[in-house]
Amino acid sequence: FFSFICSVTNKKPAQASITKVKQFEGSTSFVRRTQWMLEQLRQVNGIDPNRDSPEFDLLFENAFDQWVASTASEKCTFFQVLHHTCQRYLTDKKPEFINCQSKIMGGNSILHSAADSVTSAVQKASQALNERGERLGRAEEKSEELKNSAQQFAETAHKVRFWWSL
Hints:
Blueprint: E1 2-8, E2 16-22, E3 31-37, E4 41-45, E5 55-60, E6 63-68, H1 72-89, E7 96-98, H2 102-105, H3 110-165
Parallel strand pairs: 4-7
Antiparallel strand pairs: 1-2, 2-3, 4-5, 5-6
């Protein structure tokens, strides 16, 4: 069973790579078979954009490799991650994506959906923080009013007590 990994180092500048790994039957570990730097990727071929199939080809600078994902959905997810990674980390010579379903590069991608969800969550959290800040501000104002009122009461009580003791 072969699988693939798209990874990015935390070094500066970041280095992205594509690794093909194999998992042997009955094992939970993976063995690295081949690895290419993202800069070496020239073409991603989805083979047939009109049907969901797990097969695809990757053309590198000095190599051609045929791949089969576990499912068509896994292939789609890999393409979306790969496309996003290329857009983010490759400044020039981005690979060509051919024979890929439009949803892979379009607005319906998992990454866009995730980004939209995160943006929505951040907006909701920001709104909640603003509302809480307003409530805290009002509570602080009310506390200040109560403090002033208590001080006035204490002063008045002290004066009344003074007059009663005479």
